[in-house]
Amino acid sequence: MGLEEISTPGRLAEPGEGISQHELALAARNHGMPLEAMRYDVTPPGLHYLLVHYDIPLIEAGSFRLRVGGLVGRELELDMAALQRFAARTVRVTMECAGNGRARLDPRPVSQPWLVEAVGTAEWTGVPLATVLEEAGVDPGAIEVVFTGADHGIERGVEQDYQRSLTVDEALLPDMLLAYAMNGAPLPPQHGFPLRLVAPGWYGMAHVKWLTDITLVDRPFTGFQQATAYRFRQTPDDEGDPVTRIAPRALVIPPGFPDFMSRARVVRPGKVLLQGRAWSGRAPIAAVEVSVDNGQTWAPASVRPDENRWAWQAWAYEWEAAPGEYVLTARATTTDGEAQPVDQAWNRGGFANNAAQQVPVWCVAAL
């Protein structure tokens, strides 16, 4: 592979083009959540989806320092002990990769080939970001907060540290966290040890891992991950709109038991309890509908209320299954009326494709 290939901008797969070795290499080092793990209210860390843009940095907790600077009243340099002296907060958050669903698109954007498994829910513990910003003192001229991770690499020919920004108003929201624990234990290395940003309701690209620097600035941040990547574009020269909060999605926990290769499910005739999860980072979930005929007809599911605003909600539907072949699917609607689509939401980056999942099922008395 030459430098010209490293510098190639994101592209679409040609008609009939299969998954490349580069995409397989990405899929091997990143992983989705097995869909049966939606049975857990809180996803065990090893089952939570994972996306690492570059390499996992080796950071020693004892030498770690978080720098806070730019347009602040006083610059800070905080070690882990100093961060842990602030009052802690725990927030349950469903996190989803912005590219979840990308491999289902046609034409297919060439990148990490997610189906629908790039999601997980964890309880994150740390210091409210607002607490640290108030300790530093936010200058009235600051409009954005830039977060820098220790992971470093090349993307489309641009050498960079991983960086993203939020507006000052967003950064000061009470559930924004500088997290040092996941499900009650120190962050695993792959999830950002020793410190990461957790931005509830936002797609995963905003939750900067291995966080080392916070800088307040007086103009919109134009780094690669903000201004070039993670934009909704229909054409290569389209400036696009930014990818921000998570679109509504419902998933079915695959019922019965699977065929090894196809993952098609086998259930027995009779009452089958269909269950799943639904979530949105934009507005709370109001309803979930279920279809057993690939979206031709829909029936309402029961949705369990959840006091955790940023976590997925459980839903259930009782299906009277008769022998035959079926395709199960579900769709969510939010309190402000945003409905999950049945068809794909196409864009060149393959972002926020929340088209309804399809679960092939065979109902048989015996094999």
Please explain how this structure is put together.
This protein is mainly β. The chain has two domains: 3-242, Sulfite Oxidase, Chain A, domain 2, CATH 3.90.420; 249-363, Immunoglobulin-like, CATH 2.60.40. It has helices spanning 3-6, 21-29, 80-85, 129-136, 168-171, 224-228; strands spanning 66-70, 76-78, 89-96, 119-128, 144-155, 158-167, 177-182, 185-186, 196-198, 211-217, 231-232, 241-242, 249-252, 257-258, 265-267, 270-279, 285-291, 299-300, 302-303, 313-321, 324-334, 359-363. The strands form five sheets. Strands 14-15-22-21-17-18 form a six-stranded mixed beta sheet, with no helix packed on it. Strand 17 and strand 18 form a beta hairpin. The radius of gyration is 21 Å and the shape is globular.
Show the helix and strand layout.
Layout: H1 3-6, H2 21-29, E1 66-70, E2 76-78, H3 80-85, E3 89-96, E4 119-128, H4 129-136, E5 144-155, E6 158-167, H5 168-171, E7 177-182, E8 185-186, E9 196-198, E10 211-217, H6 224-228, E11 231-232, E12 241-242, E13 249-252, E14 257-258, E15 265-267, E16 270-279, E17 285-291, E18 299-300, E19 302-303, E20 313-321, E21 324-334, E22 359-363
Parallel strand pairs: 1-10, 15-22
Antiparallel strand pairs: 1-2, 3-4, 4-7, 5-6, 5-10, 7-8, 7-9, 11-12, 13-16, 14-15, 16-20, 17-18, 17-21, 19-20, 21-22
Could you provide a short overview of the structure?
The protein has 367 residues and is mainly beta. It has 6 helices and 22 strands. A 6-stranded mixed sheet has the order 14-15-22-21-17-18, with no helix packed on it. Strands 2-1-10-5-6 form a 5-stranded mixed sheet. Strands 3, 4, 7, 8 and 9 form a 5-stranded antiparallel sheet that branches.
